[in-house]
Amino acid sequence: MTSLVKRLKSSPKHTIWITLGLLALPPLFWAGNFIVGRSVRGDIPPLTLSFDRWLIASLILLPFTYKTLRREWRLYWQYRTRIVIASITGVAAFNSLIYLGLQTTTASNALILNSFIPLLIMLFGSLFFKLTLSAKQWLGMSISFVGVLSIISRGEWSNLTSLSFNQGDMVVFLAMVSWAIYTLVIQRMPKEMNRIGLMSVQMFLGLLVVLPFYLWEVHSGALPNWNNHTLLALAYVGIVPSVLAYLLYTAGVERLGPAKVGLSIHLIPVFGVLLSIALLGESLHLYQISGMALIFLGILLS
């Protein structure tokens, strides 16, 4: 895995296809996670999908990271509180809540709400990590939040006053809150900590957190319907967005820098909405377009 990152990093700088791949493939793969989660909602229970996803990803990574885990275990123990919080929010909560939310909301809505994450990161950074925000950034967050409310209320503002929300949208929004917290925590990890090894640790801890909820789901009688479609879906979420997208994103950060690659995250809802229309037959509504426009306007201002 590490050699793949090094090879991508050392590729000729003039190779435009490699650059485009590093920028476009990770958000495309992550968008696919939403599409798959929505497509198997009737066949694979959400917590089963979350648990099996990280089990597959952990087993794939372990042969490549076990030496790093042995070498850096003292460092992991030193930062155990941050690692546990990151594992709960970024692995266990985020993906489980996404799959739960996709039971009752569309992939398009979930993907558009994903665009609100950068603003949540700034908000929580200001509240809990002493990040100073300008008046323009506060204005941007306010505009983006109006966009989120437009999506959650389905464009019917009377739903806000009557507190009539789609449950799936609210669950997805909680997932976005989890990811914002995860991002702020992971940024405070020491630079000398191997990121792929850290990813393995987070997966193992995330599995332990999801395990009791997964067992409860099984005990309640929610069992998967295994067929070619669900097996391929499970293979996709376990390999492509969980491992391959992360490695490509890491290589992109090393080759192009975090600022440029970070902007590519905004391609997730663009790819996702197009995929949801093409593959799931979902429709794009005016309230979604206006909500996404407000979110992006807020991000630009911020």
Summarize the structure.
It contains 14 helices and no strands. Helix 6 crosses helix 9. This is EamA domain-containing protein.
Question: Topology, please?
Answer:
Layout (H helix, E strand, L loop, with lengths): L1 H8 L6 H24 L6 H33 L1 H22 L5 H8 L2 H12 L6 H18 L5 H4 L5 H20 L8 H25 L8 H29 L1 H6 L3 H14 L5 H16 L1
Helix pairs in contact: 1-11, 2-11, 2-13, 3-4, 3-10, 3-11, 4-9, 4-10, 5-9, 5-13, 6-7, 6-9, 7-14
Keywords: Membrane, Transmembrane, Transmembrane helix
Subcellular location: Membrane
Organism: Vibrio furnissii
Keywords summarizing the entry:
membrane, AA-Vitamin_Transporters, mainly alpha, EamA_dom, 14 helices, transmembrane
Which segments are poorly predicted (pLDDT under 50) over 5 or more consecutive residues?
Answer: none
**Count of beta strands:** 0
| Computed CA radius of gyration, to the nearest angstrom | 19 Å
Order of helix and strand elements from N to C terminus? HHHHHHHHHHHHHH
Q: Assign a percent range to the helix content.
A: over 70%
Main sheet record: none
Question: Helix/strand-derived class?
Answer: mainly alpha
Number of domains: 1
Terminus-to-terminus distance: 35 Å
Transmembrane segments: 81-102, 108-129, 138-155, 167-185, 197-216, 228-249, 261-279, 285-301
Subcellular location: Membrane
Pfam families: EamA (PF00892)
InterPro entries: AA-Vitamin_Transporters, EamA_dom, EmrE-like
